[in-house]
Structure formats: structure tokens, C-alpha cells
């Protein structure tokens, strides 16, 4: 496995570029001349609780500068961090992210309490935390790419693309996407390094951030299942004597069950908390009158104080998450397939095509590997001569993961969220885009970027250090943008998708207009 040194210049460039992109995002969304005054806020029918208490001068300033990052679902996270799970439909949002906001607001930002109200401190906390998680997520993706792809060039370019992700606005706003991406990519990297327990802890934390983190249990099951399959294929002439089959099976099953239990535990505990809060006897709670009035006006359900219980409490498996998705947001199989949703399907078209193309490309390059689910022992892998790049054997489980998310999201979810759903959950979107740019633009890797002694699948040496010639940029993504007039049409489409969604997301989302 390829190790990444802390002194790796590409890692430093990934972090530097991520910081610059996040700073530019915050600067653009905070510019009233560009967004808030040019495009008035849309009167959206979204969750918008009253501000209590009345905001002061400092709060108004924070709202003016950062208010664009508190739209749509961000209101839920900020409200939960401020007042807990007051309304039933708030329970669609898992607790680790709002708890982190509250901890930072009352911890490191405590000196600002005299100047700002709690909500403003929470919004500042969201900006700081998401900026940190975005940078850490980019570096984790680079390390993961180096370990899986074994091609530093593609890993480097993919990590840079993550910083201009089509889901960029959700990585910056008070959403949980940045935190989830950072935890998920870090967990995948640790698993590739063989650090199963640390990986399990990170995956467990990720499942406390977003419900789709439960799918990550598949990485553990596949990793241990693959190891077991390889053990069974050891030749009879092997010098090493293998333990009995039942011992081998137990050595694989026990850690797999424990890891999966750890990943499911945060979600299960939160479902239990929700059941106790909304289905059990509720203690007297003081709810401000404006929030009670909001519940009456919008039909929001509060924790019962009169013994009345919501219908999901009497279900055989009282899972509030699925109930909210069904009743409040009409999420279900093919429910979004309506003529009036065509614009939303068009919004999801680029990421759908890219994800489908990635899966097809991988299957076409590795038909036998896909048919055997990657469980067939190969001599090339044992000798360390496996193909490098996007089509290498190690990418198989990531392609399956991304395809499962894509198919489920397309058929069962509000389809416009596919861009941020995949962009924060799977490295495939970035790996495949980097693969296309790497193949389409051979001029991108100049002489100064070559590292003698090692070869990539295309016969070129992998990227090892940035060019040292004066006036040459060590960032291949910047070099692509500088030479945009001469790149291929396919490269223009890939970059156009990333940059247009990066910018349009800021313009539309920050003004309460519908976006992905």
C-alpha cells in the first residue's frame, strides 16, 4: 500500500487549495452586491422558525454576512442545536452535527456571548466547523486515493476537484455534508491501511451524522469477506498450515458483527431517544408561544403532553426516521416520478450520467473481476503488479457503493439531492472525473511533475512533486482552467459541471431558491 508522507507537497497543495476555495465561497456568499441585493430572497415554504429573542446589532451583522448559509435544511440543524428536538420532523436530522455546533458555540466561542445571541454563535460555529471539515475531507480523500488507486496523479486531481465540488454550497452551509464526508473518507482510508477499529469508530460517528452512513457497513463486510475468500483459495501446497474452517469463519464473522453493530448503534440509539421523547410520557416543558403558534399554523407535532401519541409509535418497528421521510416529505419508491418534477430530474442528470458512466467504465474494464465480486485471488495482486488508476481492482467496492447510492437515490429520494448525496458520500464522483481529465489531457503533467523510477498505467511516471520551473503552477486543476481554451470538449463538460454547480449553488441556495 502506498503511504503518504506528512511532508508530501501534494498534500500541502490539497490543503492550501481547499482553504482558498472555502474562503472564496464565504466571500462570495457574503457579498450583498452580488447575491443578496441583486437577487432578493425567495419566499420559500420551508422551515423558518421565529428568531427568539429579538436579534441585536451583532446578530443582524452576522445574518447579513452569513445568512445565506442558514437556508433550507440548515434552519433545522441550527434550531436543533439551539432548542433540541422540539418538533417531530426535526428528528429526520441526526444529532452529532447539531451537538458539535452547540459544543463549539458554548466552548471556543463563549467569549462572544455578550455580543451575539446563541443562534448567531451557532451559525458562526457551522462556518468554522464546515471549513475545517472541508479541508480535512480533501486531505483524507487524497490519502484514500493514493492508497486505493495507487496513482498519485489521479488521487491529487480528485482531491482538488473535491474543493470545487458541485455540492460546494452544502459543504459550506450549516449542513452535515462536510462533517460526513470527512468522517467517511477518513474511515475508508483507515480501513485501507488495515486500522479496522479506528475505521469502525469513524464509520460509527458518520452514522450519527447522516442516515446513509449505515450503508458503510458494507465496506467492513466486504473487507472481511474478501479476506476469508482469499484464505479459502490458498493452495494445498502452501507451507503455512491453516486453522480449521470454523476458526477462520469465526475470525471473520466476529469482527464483522461487532463493526456493523458499532455502525448501527448511533442510529438505533437516536431512534430510541425519539421514541421515548414522542411516544412516552413527556415531562412538562416550557415552549415559547411563538413556537407553539408555528406548530399550530404548520401542523408540526410536538412531544405529547396530553397522552396523544403519533401513529408511528404503535408500529411494530417504531422508526421515526422512515415515518418522517414518508409523511412529511413523501419519500418513497417512484413517488418523485411526476411530470412536474422534470426540472429536478434535469438538475440531477449530470451526476446521474457521471455515476452511471463510472460504473459502466469499471465493469467494461474488469468484467471477470465484477462477475466474481473481486473475491478471486489473482497472482498479479499478490505480486503487487495490479493495474493502477480508476480501473484497478481495489476500486470495485467503491463503485458498488456509489452505484447502490445512485440507484436508491434516483428511485426513492427527491432526485435533486443526488448531487450532494453522492458528493459527500462517495469518492467515485471525484475519482472518475479525475480519471477522465487525466486521460483526456496528457499535456497536463509536465516534465517538472514527473518522478523518475515509477510508472503509471499509461506508461508515465506518477506525480511526485510540483514543478520547480519559474512561473509554472503546481496545481493541475488551475493549469486546466488556465488552458481551458485548448482542452477537449469532454474535459470542458466535466469542469463546466463542477464550476457551474459550484457557482449556481451559491447564487440560488443562499437566496432561498430551490437547488440540489
Give a description of the structure.
It is a single chain. With 516 residues, the chain is an all-alpha fold. The protein has one domain. The protein is built from 21 helices and no strands. α1 runs antiparallel to α5. The longest helix has 35 residues. About 5% of the residues have low confidence.
What is the structure about, briefly put?
This protein is mainly α and 516 residues long. Helices cover 57% and strands 0% of the residues. Helix 5 runs parallel beside helix 8, helix 6 (152-163) crosses helix 19 (428-440) and helix 9 runs parallel beside helix 11 (245-279).
Alpha-beta classification: mainly alpha
Number of helices: 21
Proportion in helices: 55-70%
Low-confidence stretches: 447-473
Number of strands: 0
Radius of gyration: 24 Å
Q: Beta-sheet strand percentage? A: under 5%
What is the domain total for the residues? 1
Mean of the pLDDT scores? 87
Q: Could you give the order of the helices and strands? A: HHHHHHHHHHHHHHHHHHHHH
Features:
single chain; 516 residues; mainly alpha; 21 helices; 57% helix; 0% strand; globular
List the helices and strands and how they pair.
Layout: H1 9-29, H2 57-66, H3 74-83, H4 96-106, H5 118-149, H6 152-163, H7 168-172, H8 177-192, H9 196-207, H10 217-232, H11 245-279, H12 289-298, H13 320-327, H14 342-365, H15 367-371, H16 379-382, H17 396-412, H18 418-423, H19 428-440, H20 476-482, H21 489-509
Amino acid at each position: 500500500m502506498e503511504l503518504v508522507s506528512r511532508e508530501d507537497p501534494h498534500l500541502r497543495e490539497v490543503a492550501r487549495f481547499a482553504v482558498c476555495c472555502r474562503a472564496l465561497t464565504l466571500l462570495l456568499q457574503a457579498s450583498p452586491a452580488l447575491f443578496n441585493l441583486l437577487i432578493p430572497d425567495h419566499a420559500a415554504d420551508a422551515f423558518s422558525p421565529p428568531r427568539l429573542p429579538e436579534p441585536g446589532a451583532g446578530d443582524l451583522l452576522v445574518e447579513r454576512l452569513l445568512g445565506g448559509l442558514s437556508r433550507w435544511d440548515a434552519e433545522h440543524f441550527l434550531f436543533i442545536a439551539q432548542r433540541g428536538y422540539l418538533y417531530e420532523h426535526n428528528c429526520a436530522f441526526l444529532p452529532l452535527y447539531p451537538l458539535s455546533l452547540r459544543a463549539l458555540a458554548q466552548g471556543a466561542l463563549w467569549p462572544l456571548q455578550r455580543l451575539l445571541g446563541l443562534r448567531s454563535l451557532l451559525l458562526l460555529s457551522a462556518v468554522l466547523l464546515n471549513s475545517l471539515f472541508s479541508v480535512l475531507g480533501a486531505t483524507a480523500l487524497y490519502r484514500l486515493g493514493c492508497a486505493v488507486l495507487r496513482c498519485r496523479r489521479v488521487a491529487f486531481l480528485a482531491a482538488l476537484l473535491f474543493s470545487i465540488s458541485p455540492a460546494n454550497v452544502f459543504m459550506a452551509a450549516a449542513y452535515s455534508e462536510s462533517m460526513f464526508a470527512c468522517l467517511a473518507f477518513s474511515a475508508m482510508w483507515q480501513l485501507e491501511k488495515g486500522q479496522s477499529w479506528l475505521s469502525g469508530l469513524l464509520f460509527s460517528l458518520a452514522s450519527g451524522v447522516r442516515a446513509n452512513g449505515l450503508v458503510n457497513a458494507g465496506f467492513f463486510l466486504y473487507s472481511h469477506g474478501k479476506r476469508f475468500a482469499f484464505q479459502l483459495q490458498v493452495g494445498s501446497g502452501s507451507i503455512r498450515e491453516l486453522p480449521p474452517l470454523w476458526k477462520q469463519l469465526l475470525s471473520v464473522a466476529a469482527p464483522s458483527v461487532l463493526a456493523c453493530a458499532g455502525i448501527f448503534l448511533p442510529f438505533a440509539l437516536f431512534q430510541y431517544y425519539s421514541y421515548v421523547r414522542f411516544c412516552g410520557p413527556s415531562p412538562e416543558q416550557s415552549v415559547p408561544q411563538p413556537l407553539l403558534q408555528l406548530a399550530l399554523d404548520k401542523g408540526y407535532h410536538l412531544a405529547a403532553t396530553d397522552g396523544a401519541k403519533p401513529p408511528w409509535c404503535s408500529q411494530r418497528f417504531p422508526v421515526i426516521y422512515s415515518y418522517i421521510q414518508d409523511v412529511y416529505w413523501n419519500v418513497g419508491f417512484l413517488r418523485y416520478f411526476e411530470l412536474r418534477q422534470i426540472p429536478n430530474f434535469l438538475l440531477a442528470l449530470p451526476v446521474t450520467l457521471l455515476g452511471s458512466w463510472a460504473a459502466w467504465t469499471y465493469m467494461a474494464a474488469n468484467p471477470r473481476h465484477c462477475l466474481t465480486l473481486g473475491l478471486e485471488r489473482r497472482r498479479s495482486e499478490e505480486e503487487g503488479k495490479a493495474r493502477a488508476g480508476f480501473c484497478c481492482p481495489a476500486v470495485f467496492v467503491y463503485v458498488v457503493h456509489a452505484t447502490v447510492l445512485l440507484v436508491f437515490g434516483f428511485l426513492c429520494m427527491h432526485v435533486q439531492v443526488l448531487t450532494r448525496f453522492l458528493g459527500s458520500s462517495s469518492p467515485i464522483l471525484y475519482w472518475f472525473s479525475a480519471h477522465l481529465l487525466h486521460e483526456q489531457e496528457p499535456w497536463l503533467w509536465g516534465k517538472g511533475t514527473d518522478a523518475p523510477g515509477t510508472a503509471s498505467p499509461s506508461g508515465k511516471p506518477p506525480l511526485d512533486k510540483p514543478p520547480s520551473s519559474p512561473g509554472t503552477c503546481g496545481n493541475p486543476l488551475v493549469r486546466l482552467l488556465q488552458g481551458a481554451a485548448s482542452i477537449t470538449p469532454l474535459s470542458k463538460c466535466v469542469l463546466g459541471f463542477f464550476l457551474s454547480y459550484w457557482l449556481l449553488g451559491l447564487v440560488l441556495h443562499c437566496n432561498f431558491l430551490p437547488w440540489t
